[in-house]
């Protein structure tokens, strides 16, 4: 593609500054797409529509590939000849069997049906069918007919119209003259759908901002987290007329997207320490935001040389050879999972690759092995996870949905997008959320000593925080969601940003890689990003992935900088290029950041894409919603995935609010109904009425009637043998690691739950049986004559009993429960929740008790080696001690290493603070499972007495990063 092609089409891709050298292209000549071409030079149909689909495995190294687009364009019939548009229409009408002459009834909007279908495709719509969400929304009266064809044509035309100029507000009236009158209802349906779901008319353009009502008229929503998901949802909800309040634990917005200003001497640069690359720009909502702000994106150029351990460049032919072998192994792993079927869910990608790699071990020399390990490091970077923990079955389940287009940087950093999104959004910073209560009357969010009330809440905290359990949900989240949180993986990626006095590495490339001498360290400083062309100064970013990323969390920052400089000197000094000392450096530690506890999600062994959908499910009958990259099945682990999830949940919140207004019941998706009562049953058995041995029982009614029904569950644990016939012996399956995981799949200790229905009296009699579980089972069989069955064996009649038990237990509304955190500091808020406004925070206190938070930490997190005085407004503890610290009496507790309070420990780990801290200090350091150098002027750092001590100015508390001083410059 000629670079000028992009410039000729400013309406479509004006923000890409560099050309593509090899892509799958679709030429749409005027003679085909528009027999009567318009003189308008900006017409999309006059241009070359270029679509490239980068595979996730290519995230770190944008190389030209011949990857097929078939997975994306499965529904497209043909791409050439004068029959292009007619083929699209024919495919759209192929499912219609009741119409003899379909062409007479299909509307003609213009001659650009193909182009518009492709543009709609980049927005996530199939080429010739409806999405499940559209069907559920009832956009057409009959699915599969001519009405559907016309709806799709109208929908695609509306999306294309907005994409031509994303800074305008598209109104329905713009289409009245081009849409036939008999299709006005379809126009209403299509327009309302794409607007309400955030496919058009979103973002930060003045035309969009001007539509936000001055006085909100709809219910109140509390958004927890001001990352891309939270900001996208908040702006969209404000546009819809909702009252919105955003609670953010950090001092800044953006979450895992953080651009830090680095400066020293006369040099200034913007470093993206979190999310940095826009992976695909066709249809990417962040690319559309950049267009609204008139920002120009910079394409990450394909050139990415690799350097050996000794600094010498890798031979290009050898590089190509190993890359081909690496891709071949991935293809073999893909075929293996097809042969394994369901078994592959319990096998790691790493085990499969290690098995097949044995074929190459004998023929590989040291350099080739280093190259292969570099590609594995790149793969672990793309997934933020160790390949030994990635699911062979589903690690790349999102690849078919990758955004088309180039990988790009935003000059000046993605913080510019965050700043634009946060403008005029009501955000309260440094509000760490500890408790979320939800029920039929609304929600209450406890942040420190404050209570925020609303009609609904949206939780956008990262998966790592949900896994950490620092937020307490009342009632507890459904078991289905807890299991999904546990199954999904949440990996780690770290960076070192270095500002230099000048660019010594050249400006003709954006990336270069470095090999390591061992597989365990393959991800350590393996890839460099040159930000010199986009950061405003001579800036290099180096990535730390895989196992090395976890070790990096405890590496002293000075050691990290020293190692990086050694690598750079080994590469450039043999070329006669002097490597200067950096002006400023910053090291990230996302795994230790209490507000993220990691970087982004992946599909771990045992998980699947379904778990993303489970995490996205709302709870509490449409009161508590969830967004974030880990809730987006199609676009996980991406910035645009987080943003799109926020738009999605804004639509869901609006839908539930509307349904409640009309006193209707929200219909759940059919795919989730199949599990609903099973999930409820699991939740009920978390608090059984009786429990003895392997038996647990719940009663249908709290009455004395001995004949009232009861549900019995028996849990069996033991090796579950399975048929091995599906796996044939093969030399490729001789790897020890792979066999270990297969054995785990077949022989692992699985829990088996069986059930039966009893009367209350029978349940009580069963409890009295002596002799253990064996005698109880004998009693059930011989005395009572009952059979134990699986959940489905109970039949549909059990559903009414399950529903009655749930209703009985749910009579106490969450709002009526005491808000007292077991310390007794907080007072009850009463029986109902006020629903008219989101309060800016009500500090609940009693007497002289403190409600401030001298130590702003998350619950249950280890943070050092000494002790901390914790105000009891922030911790659930029994009993309720009051102690004196210094001369200040406060309801606080001094908890030392491994101390328990009464019989209850503080969460799952002890709570510490670094030495020399006092009760009045505000803790802004690392909270996590690993000890890292925490800034404390004049004191030791963490539990490592030998760790270096840095001045406070070197620590960035907004993202838990460290900037060691160098060259006499004071780093910030």
UniProtKB/TrEMBL annotation:
SUPFAM superfamilies the record matches: FAD-linked reductases, C-terminal domain, FAD/NAD(P)-binding domain, Homeodomain-like
Region (Disordered): 934-972
GO biological process terms held by the UniProt record: chromatin organization
Signal sequence residues: none
Domain SWIRM stretches: 110-211
Record-level Gene Ontology MF annotations: oxidoreductase activity
Family indicated by similarity: Belongs to the flavin monoamine oxidase family.
Protein name, per record: SWIRM domain-containing protein
Lineage of source species: Eukaryota, Viridiplantae, Streptophyta, Embryophyta, Tracheophyta
């Amino acid at each position: 593609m000629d670079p000028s092609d992009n410039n000729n089409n400013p309406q479509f891709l004006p923000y890409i500054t560099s050309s593509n050298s090899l892509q799958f292209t679709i030429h749409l000549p005027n003679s085909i797409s528009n027999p009567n071409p318009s003189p308008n030079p900006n017409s999309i149909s006059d241009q070359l529509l270029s679509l490239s689909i980068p595979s996730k495995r290519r995230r770190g190294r944008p190389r030209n590939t011949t990857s097929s687009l078939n997975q994306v364009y499965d529904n497209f019939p043909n791409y050439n000849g004068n029959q292009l548009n007619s083929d699209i229409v024919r495919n759209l009408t192929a499912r219609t069997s009741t119409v003899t002459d379909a062409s007479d009834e299909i509307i003609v909007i213009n001659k650009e049906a193909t182009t518009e279908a492709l543009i709609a495709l980049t927005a996530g719509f199939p080429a010739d069918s409806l999405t499940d969400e559209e069907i559920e929304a009832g956009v057409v009266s009959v699915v599969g007919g001519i009405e559907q064809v016309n709806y799709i044509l109208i929908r695609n035309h509306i999306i294309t119209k907005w994409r031509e100029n994303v800074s305008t507000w598209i109104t329905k009236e713009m289409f009245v003259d081009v849409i036939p009158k008999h299709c006005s209802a379809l126009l209403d349906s299509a327009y309302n759908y794409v607007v309400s779901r955030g496919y058009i008319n979103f973002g930060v353009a003045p035309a969009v901002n001007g539509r936000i009502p001055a006085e909100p008229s709809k219910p109140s929503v509390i958004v927890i987290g001001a990352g891309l998901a939270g900001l996208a949802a908040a702006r969209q909800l404000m546009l819809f007329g909702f009252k919105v309040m955003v609670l953010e634990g950090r001092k800044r917005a953006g979450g895992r997207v953080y651009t830090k200003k680095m400066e020293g001497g006369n040099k200034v640069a913007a470093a993206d320490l979190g999310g940095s690359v826009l992976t695909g720009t066709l249809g990417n909502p962040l690319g559309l935001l950049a267009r609204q702000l008139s920002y120009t994106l910079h394409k990450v150029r394909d050139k990415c040389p690799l350097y050996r351990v000794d600094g010498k460049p890798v031979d290009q032919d050898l590089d190509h050879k190993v890359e081909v072998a690496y891709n071949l192994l991935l293809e073999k792993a893909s075929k293996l999972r097809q042969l394994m079927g369901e078994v592959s869910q319990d096998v790691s990608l790493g085990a499969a690759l290690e098995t097949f790699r044995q074929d190459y071990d004998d023929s590989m020399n040291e350099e080739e092995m280093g190259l292969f390990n570099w590609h594995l490091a790149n793969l672990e970077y793309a997934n933020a996870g160790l390949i030994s923990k990635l699911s062979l079955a589903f690690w790349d389940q999102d690849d078919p949905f990758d955004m088309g287009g180039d990988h790009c940087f935003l000059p000046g950093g993605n913080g510019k997008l965050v700043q634009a999104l946060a403008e005029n959004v009501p955000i309260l910073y440094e509000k760490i959320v500890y408790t979320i209560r939800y029920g039929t009357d609304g929600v209450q969010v406890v942040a420190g000593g404050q209570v925020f009330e609303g009609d609904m809440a949206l939780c956008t905290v990262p998966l790592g925080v949900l896994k950490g359990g620092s937020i307490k949900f009342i009632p507890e989240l459904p078991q289905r969601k807890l299991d999904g949180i546990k199954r999904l993986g949440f990996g780690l990626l770290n960076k070192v940003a270095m500002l230099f006095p000048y660019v010594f590495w050249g400006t003709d490339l954006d990336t270069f890689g470095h090999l390591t001498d061992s597989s365990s360290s393959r991800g350590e400083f393996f890839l460099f990003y040159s930000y010199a062309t986009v950061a405003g100064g001579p800036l290099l970013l180096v990535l730390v992935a895989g196992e090395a990323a976890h070790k990096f969390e405890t590496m002293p920052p000075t050691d990290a900088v020293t190692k990086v400089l050694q690598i750079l000197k080994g590469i450039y000094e043999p070329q006669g290029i002097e490597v200067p000392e950096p002006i400023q450096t910053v090291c990230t530690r996302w795994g230790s950041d209490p507000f993220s506890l990691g970087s982004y999600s992946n599909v771990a062994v045992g998980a699947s894409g379904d778990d993303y959908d489970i995490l996205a499910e709302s709870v509490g009958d449409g009161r508590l919603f969830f967004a974030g990259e880990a809730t987006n099945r199609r676009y996980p682990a991406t910035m645009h995935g987080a943003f799109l999830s926020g738009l999605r949940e804004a639509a869901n919140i609006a839908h539930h609010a509307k349904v409640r207004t009309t006193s209707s019941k929200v219909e759940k998706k059919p795919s989730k109904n199949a599990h609903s009562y099973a999930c409820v049953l699991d939740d009920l058995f978390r608090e059984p009425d009786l429990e003895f041995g392997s038996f647990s029982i719940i009663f249908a009614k709290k009455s004395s009637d001995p004949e009232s029904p009861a549900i019995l569950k028996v849990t069996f644990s033991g090796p579950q043998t399975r048929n091995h016939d599906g796996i044939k012996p093969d030399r490729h399956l001789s790897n020890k690691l792979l066999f270990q995981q297969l054995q785990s799949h077949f022989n692992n200790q699985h829990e088996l739950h069986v059930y039966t229905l009893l009367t209350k009296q029978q349940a009580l009699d069963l409890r009295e049986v002596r002799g253990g579980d064996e005698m109880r089972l004998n009693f059930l069989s011989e005395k009572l004559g009952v059979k134990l069955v699986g959940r489905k064996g109970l039949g549909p009649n059990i559903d009414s009993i399950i529903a009655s038990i749930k209703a009985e237990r749910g009579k106490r509304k969450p709002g009526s429960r005491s808000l007292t955190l077991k310390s007794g500091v907080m007072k009850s808020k009463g029986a109902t929740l006020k629903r008219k406004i989101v309060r800016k925070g009500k500090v609940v206190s009693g007497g002289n008790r403190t409600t401030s938070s001298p130590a702003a930490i998350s619950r249950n997190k280890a943070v050092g080696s000494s002790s901390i005085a914790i105000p009891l407004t922030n911790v659930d503890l029994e009993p309720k001690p009051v102690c004196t610290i210094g001369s200040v009496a406060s309801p606080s507790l001094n908890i030392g290493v491994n101390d328990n309070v009464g019989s209850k420990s503080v969460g799952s780990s002890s709570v510490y603070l670094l030495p020399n801290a006092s009760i009045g200090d505000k803790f802004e350091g690392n909270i996590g499972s690993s000890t890292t150098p925490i800034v404390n002027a004049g004191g030791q750092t963490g539990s490592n007495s030998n760790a270096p001590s840095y001045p406070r100015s070197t620590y960035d508390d907004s993202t838990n990063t460290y900037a060691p001083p160098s060259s006499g410059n004071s780093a910030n």
